[in-house]
Amino acid sequence: MTKSEITKEQYLSIAQKFGFTKRELELGFLKVSGFSNRRIAYMFGISEQTVKNHFTHIYEKAWVPGRKEFKELFFEGINEISHKERYSGHNHR
């Protein structure tokens, strides 16, 4: 897995704390996976403006100003989870 990839499980473990709707969870995963608004709109059969409206709500719930910061939440979160898993069970004195 490259640095820019995220599994659905990793995404959901972080996204669950924001109170996203099912649709917001789906759209958010596609966004952090690198899909454009246009592609997401096509995949769901909705307008690009509707996708943008969803992301306005998603960014508000996640307390971030935009796409870049939204993606950073997840990749920083993955690094924290990986670090905790790597060092769990070790006694640091």
Q: Give a short account of the largest sheet.
A: none
CATH class: Mainly Alpha
Tell me what the CATH architecture is: Orthogonal Bundle
Structural class: mainly alpha
End-to-end distance: 32 Å
Instruction: Indicate the CATH topology.
Output: Arc Repressor Mutant, subunit A
DSSP summary: helix tally: 5
Residue share in helix: 55-70%
In total, the number of domains comes to 1
- List low-pLDDT spans: none
What sort of overall outline do the alpha carbons produce when their principal axes are compared?
globular
Q: Count every beta strand, where a strand is a DSSP E run of 2 or more residues.
A: 0
How much strand? Answer: under 5%
Mean pLDDT: 85
CATH superfamily: Winged helix-like DNA-binding domain superfamily/Winged helix DNA-binding domain
Q: Could you spell the SSE succession in H and E letters?
A: HHHHH
Which radius of gyration do the C-alpha atoms yield?
15 Å
